[in-house]
Specification:
Strands 1-7-8-6-5-2-3-4 form an 8-stranded mixed beta sheet, with helices on both faces. The protein is about 40% helix and about 20% strand. The protein has a single domain, classed as LmbE-like (Rossmann fold, 3-Layer(aba) Sandwich), CATH 3.40.50.10320. The protein has about 230 residues and is of the alpha/beta class.
């Protein structure tokens, strides 16, 4: 169920009968899972198609000289996490901590999103501390704007207070029933200190639950000019 701030039921709370294509964009493997992994799990449980789009593969260098380098392990972790959440992984081909936002990348990313043809896209808050988060948020926004707002656009938070700042959600999704799956998906990223980061993100989920009246919740900001869209 989707709730507006203050606990009122959103007009978008009713999930339509048709199958939606939901895409969650993140800078790195793990970002969609930690930031809002419970929400795509709920979409998938309702029969909707879910894709996780990662800007990079968590590379340790650009480019990695060793086939055993970080991106191999982190790609496998992302694939495992996606299988837990019934999502499909897609990688945009950029390099960790070396993201590029220019005319060529705008066009390339727009073409990628056009191929995916999503109904709803979730992406990072545009002023996150990590430059890769800001980069993919910028690329998503540009593709959305140039599509004439074809898909619904929402923003999510990651490690609130450490990475995401100034985030004030207006809509919430109850993730209480899928928290164990979200946790398992986050812990699939074994190379990324899940004991530390999941505890941090779970504090956010608990707090958003207090705000919205659930045990745990994920909060979102819908882009002001976005078309309405159902949250699960």
């Amino acid at each position: 169920m989707s709730l507006l701030a203050g606990g009122a039921i959103s007009a978008s709370a009713q999930v339509p009968a048709r199958r939606l294509k939901v895409l969650v964009a993140g800078g790195h493997p793990g970002d969609p899972e930690y930031g809002c992994g419970g929400t795509p799990a709920r979409y998938a449980d309702l029969g909707h198609a879910v894709t996780f789009l990662y800007l990079n593969r968590g590379d340790t260098s650009c480019s990695e000289p060793d086939a055993r380098a970080g991106s191999v392990a982190r790609t496998a972790e992302a694939e495992k996490a996606c299988s837990i959440l019934n999502a499909r992984p897609v990688f945009a081909g950029q390099c960790d901590a070396h993201s590029v936002v220019d005319n060529a990348r705008y066009d390339e990313f727009r073409a990628l999103l056009e191929r995916e043809n999503p109904d709803i896209v979730f992406t990072h808050w545009p002023i996150d501390n990590h430059r890769d988060h800001r980069a993919i948020s910028n690329l998503v926004y540009d593709a959305w704007s140039r599509s004439r707002n074809k898909f619904a656009l929402f923003y999510y938070e990651v490690s609130d207070g450490e990475d995401t700042l100034m985030f004030q959600p207006a809509e919430y999704v109850d993730i209480s029933a899928v928290e164990k799956r979200k946790r398992a998906a986050c812990y699939a990223h074994a190379s990324q200190s899940p004991d530390r980061y999941y505890a941090m993100q779970d504090e956010v989920a608990r707090f958003r639950g207090v705000e919205s009246g659930f045990q745990r919740a994920e909060g979102f900001v819908r882009q002001a000019r976005s078309i309405p869209a159902p949250l699960p």
